[in-house]
């Protein structure tokens, strides 16, 4: 998710140990984990509420589908698929 490796995690732990001290670090880590869990639940409930408010047809809605780039690619891809199914009419250059 954040693309953090083992060495970076160790470095963050050492910096946290220096800044916060060994007594407060476990409490702060537990609080951070609790807030992350609450944030994850909030995002999930917002997604579920959005799905229920949009109605039928959006049951398979994913958060990544709400990204404008993804939405445009999906829309253009659907339009291109439909265009491939229909024959393209020939335009007479003399009419233009």
Put the structure in a nutshell.
It is built from three helices and no strands. With 96 residues, it is mainly alpha-helical.
- The first-to-last residue Cα distance is 54 Å
Report on the biggest sheet.
Answer: none
Could you tell me the radius of gyration in angstroms?
A: 25 Å
> How many β-strand stretches?
0
Helix and strand sequence: HHH
Q: How many H/I helical runs?
A: 3
Shape: elongated
Estimated helix fraction: 55-70%
- Determine the strand fraction and express it as a percent band: under 5%
Characterization of the model:
Helices cover 66% and strands 0% of the residues. The chain has 96 residues and is an all-alpha fold. It has one domain (6-85). It is elongated, with a radius of gyration of 25 Å. It starts with 5 loop residues before the first helix and ends in an 11-residue tail after the last helix.
List the helices and strands and how they pair.
Elements: H1 6-20, H2 25-54, H3 68-85
Which key phrases capture this entry?
mainly alpha, 3 helices, 96 residues
């Amino acid at each position: 998710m954040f693309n953090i490796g083992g060495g970076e995690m160790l470095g963050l732990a050492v910096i946290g140990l220096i800044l916060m001290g060994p007594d407060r670090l476990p409490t702060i880590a537990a609080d951070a984990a609790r807030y992350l869990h609450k944030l994850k639940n909030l995002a999930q409930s917002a997604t579920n509420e959005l799905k229920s408010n949009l109605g039928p047809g959006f049951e398979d809605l994913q958060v990544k589908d709400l990204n404008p780039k993804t939405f445009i690619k999906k829309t253009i891809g659907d339009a291109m698929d439909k265009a491939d199914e229909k024959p393209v009419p020939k335009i007479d250059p003399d009419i233009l």
